Amino acid sequence: MGTPTKKVAFYTLGCKLNFSETSTIARDFVKYGFEKVEFDTVADFYVINTCSVTENADKEARKLVRQAKRRNQNSSVVVIGCYAQLKPQEISKMENVDLVLGSEEKFKILDYLDLLKLNQGPVVVHDEISHVNEFVPSYSIGDRTRSYLKIQDGCNYTCSFCTIPLARGRSRSDNIYNTIAAAKKLSHRGVKELVLTGVNIGDYGNDSKESFLDLLIELDKLNGITRIRISSIEPNLLSDELIEFCNSSKKIMPHYHIPLQSGSNKILKLMRRRYDKLLYQSKVKKIKSMNPDACIGADIIVGFPSETENDFLDTYNFISDLDISYLHVFTYSERKNTDAALIPNPVSMYNRSRRRKMLHILSEKKMRGFYSKFLNTKRNVLYENKKNGYLYGHTDNYIKVKIKESKKYINTIQKTNLITIQDKNVVGQI
Fold first, then answer.
1. Which of 14, 21, 115, 327 is deepest in the core (most CB within 10 A)?
2. pTM of the model
3. What is the pLDDT of residue 118?
């Protein structure tokens, strides 16, 4: 009788980049004979890919470690990702953690499993982030119809609130030839939509004399891939030339996610962002002048140190007047080894929470207003997954649509009537 197949489960916190990397690591496990199972089932190994953008992300990682061990006391728990890079010793002191791997080491996880010996204390394998300079290509496949394709990693910016350069190192990317080869591989596996991910993807190619626009031009020629989305791009890197090309493309979706972080120039300076309100506003106007149907999302941080009530109202009013479609709202969280943690006049937790709620309500109004414009019209929807008797998908301009379940529409693009708004979705009919 053969040895039973070892089971491995994964949990991913944080950004789309993390999801692409988890998927790549999971494929390595399967290739070497492991069975991949759901995280809420019994497994031999639990791998938690962490985020460390906020303190809450750290807490969530600790909770997942406890949950994993409760499911199987004899399992091995491996913690990887940004939290593992920033605070390896802190994680190693947690009860039930067996292996901690830094940013570079996580892609060699299979090489380190032999180091694990149950009940003999955690193993930490971690190098300084300054030594991390390799680009490891990653993509998600099989989890959904769309694939997250990692095109860039790390960041050369020094935003005062951000730990990502400390967790992921300097900006780096693969060349266009290899990136196109990865995209072709995904198209051959039936992927309809590529989401280009990274830490700062507008910085793509800065180490190879290529540019993000050069990459988009080549991806636009690719057969098989129907849709291309840009996950997020800094406003100062979103050139008019890039916007014009995206607008002319049949494959690049009219959907932009442009981090704003604050609508106060005073706070933007304290954050060390590389733009001001006027530049941001000009990018929104440029996009909308070329395609009024385009969806534009923004990231916002509330409660940044020294943010007065007037600064917040500046942000609120600025966003209220902007022709954008939704917000991702983050409550400022003090992070060690960041300059923002040293800025005086912290905002009370009460005011941080109150401001976050106000922007959440504004975001819902923005999204509902955007969705309403397209009711009683037809849009192409890529149907991606099913849940509770419905199929879910997105229009080209990122409206989330649900229809009564029909398996034949999975992973297909269908012209859909947009009928009414229900539970943050638009109910559609084919």
1. 21
2. 0.90
3. 52
